[in-house]
Design a protein that fits this description.
The chain is α+β, with helices and mostly antiparallel strands and 484 residues long. Among the domains are: 56 residues; 151 residues, Apoptosis, Tumor Necrosis Factor Receptor Associated Protein 2, Chain A. 28% of the residues lie in helices and 20% in strands. The protein contains 15 helices and 23 strands. Strands 16, 17, 18, 19 and 22 form a five-stranded antiparallel β-sheet that branches. A hairpin with a 6-residue loop joins strand 5 and strand 6. The longest helix has 30 residues. It binds zinc ion (ZN) (7 copies). The site of one zinc ion has 8 residues, from loops. Pfam families: TRAF-mep_MATH, zf-TRAF. Keywords: Cytoplasm, Metal-binding, Repeat, Zinc, Zinc-finger. One of its GO terms (cellular component) is cytoplasm.
């Protein structure tokens, strides 16, 4: 490494103590000291401290008398002028103490200027040409790194395939080396050599897509087995080990329910009480050989059901029983019933039973359309009967509530007629009358009422019958002696 002295001196720096002596009258130099310090002891080590101590004394004025000086009053502006002013000066200059030009980079070297060149040949901060001739100038201290890592012409071996490259070649090779292990792109978590990735993804990768052979849906390879355990189309054998099958899992229930010959099934007449249970293929034989037994079971069943129906009926009747003490009896198909009454002697129409209150007397109205007794053939007769009721044992006897019958005229409301028209009759039972004693459970108890309640003639004249229907109200009132 060769440099001209002028090159060095441009970058020279000096220890502070040997900076140009501004007090010297002989010296105009403002760049370099013209007074060389006494040479440091040659045989001593030139540590900075010893140099400094030497130099501290070098600034004494006495030393200037023996030193060469440049011609007075000549400004020195060029380094060349001071490098070679004359042999004497040069000697002095070359003997001046300087720091290494790489002082700022951290080189601690300091010595006479003349030794600088030699130092720079070994200074670890001085840049030299890269031995690979890559064209870079690299400080010696960085060269090892440069050669190992950054020189584009360094020799470098790929750590994966062991092929040798130049530095720049290796950079191009990086990221493409087929021997480098890399993580699978499908995120299965496996590391595979780059060159084997396509084979891995096609054949080994747990995340590759695979089609279920039974239902044809796609699953990742690692979940296919789990799916297989529940796939509705995967074939499974009949759990009853019958001859049929295997069946698609989704069809198994239907097979067991409808077909499987090995499945144990109850007799068809189980609800009737047959206890038989056996494989389905034996059921037919059982049915054939037990026809009469099954029939008996069915008869018994229908008997039980009949009783249940009756219980339900009476429960229903109880729910619909009238406990208000007032019966509004609607008699439809009036003309047919009237015709019938005229042809059949003593034909009596009876109303639904009703109670005078929730725990009261049980009553029933009855009607002879063609009359009865004194009204026979000319009048409609109405009667009330006391029926055996559930609470008779707790009631007062004889029955003594007043009873009012009202036969309504229809369509007269709101016609300005001043209210509901009709025929009304009341009575208060006489305690001596047989009819109002506590009734026995015998049927056909006698009634009490009005044989000439309303004449056929009035019935036809006034609007009692509308839409072939007649309304009769029967009202029982315990508080009134006579009610109308
Ligand atoms: Zn140095
Ligand atoms: Zn290089
Ligand atoms: Zn490689
Ligand atoms: Zn993978
Ligand atoms: Zn499937
Ligand atoms: Zn089966
Ligand atoms: Zn059976």
């Amino acid at each position: 490494m060769v440099r001209s002295l002028s090159q060095w001196t441009k970058t020279l720096s000096f220890p502070a103590r040997i900076s140009p002596n501004r007090n010297s009258k002989d010296c105009n130099v403002n760049v370099l000291p013209i007074t060389p310090p006494p040479a440091p002891p040659r045989n001593k080590s030139t540590t900075s401290t010893s140099t400094s101590s030497t130099m501290s004394s070098s600034s004494s004025p006495s030393s200037s008398s023996s030193s060469p000086t440049p011609p007075p009053n000549v400004p020195i502006t060029e380094i060349s002028q001071i490098i070679y002013p004359d042999p004497e000066s040069e000697k002095a200059i070359m003997g001046s103490l300087v720091f290494c030009i790489h002082h700022k980079q951290g080189c601690k070297w300091s010595d006479e200027l003349r030794k600088l060149k030699a130092h720079l040949n070994t200074c670890k901060h001085d840049a030299i040409q890269c031995p690979n001739k890559c064209g870079s100038q690299i400080p010696r201290v960085m060269m090892t790194d440069h050669l190992a890592f950054t020189c584009i012409l360094r020799r470098a071996i790929c750590e994966f395939c062991n092929v040798e490259f130049t530095g720049i070649g290796l950079e191009e090779h990086a990221g493409t080396c087929s021997s480098e292990p890399i993580y699978c792109e499908s995120k299965c978590g496996t590391r595979v050599l780059r060159g084997r990735m396509s084979i891995h993804r096609a054949k080994d990768c747990a995340k590759r897509l695979r089609r279920c052979p039974h239902c044809a849906r796609e699953f990742s390879a690692d979940t296919l087995a789990v799916h297989g355990a529940t796939c509705p189309r995967s074939p499974v054998p009949c759990p009853q080990r019958c001859d049929a099958g295997p069946f698609a899992r989704a069809d198994l229930d239907a097979h067991l329910r409808d077909e499987c010959k090995a499945l144990t099934v109850p007799c068809t007449f189980k609800e009737a009480g047959c206890r038989f249970k056996g494989p389905r293929h034996l059921l037919e034989a059982h049915l054939e050989t037990n026809t009469s037994a099954h029939l008996s079971l069915m008869v018994a069943l229908s008997g039980r059901q009949g009783q249940q129906i009756n219980m339900l009926k009476s429960a229903m009747a109880k729910l619909s029983t009238n406990y208000t003490g007032t019966l509004l009896w609607k008699i439809s198909d009036w003309s047919v019933k009237m015709q019938e009454a005229k042809t059949k002697d003593g034909l009596e129409l009876v109303s639904p039973p009703f109670y005078t209150s929730q725990y009261g007397y049980k009553l029933q109205a009855s009607m002879f359309l063609n009359g009865n007794g004194p009204g026979e053939g000319t009048h409609v007769s109405v009667y009330i009967k006391v029926l055996p009721g559930e609470y008779d044992a707790l009631l007062k006897w004889p029955f003594s509530h007043s009873v009012t019958f009202t036969l309504f005229e229809q369509g007269t409301l709101g016609s300005g007629g001043g209210g509901q028209g009709g025929v009304a009759e009341s009575f208060v039972p006489d305690p001596s009358w047989e009819n109002f004693q506590r009734p026995s459970t015998e049927p056909d108890a006698l009634g009490f009422g009005f044989p000439r309640f309303v004449s056929h003639e009035l019935l036809n004249r006034r609007p009692f019958v509308r839409d072939d229907t007649v309304f009769l109200r029967v009202k029982v009132d315990p508080s009134k002696i006579v009610a109308v």
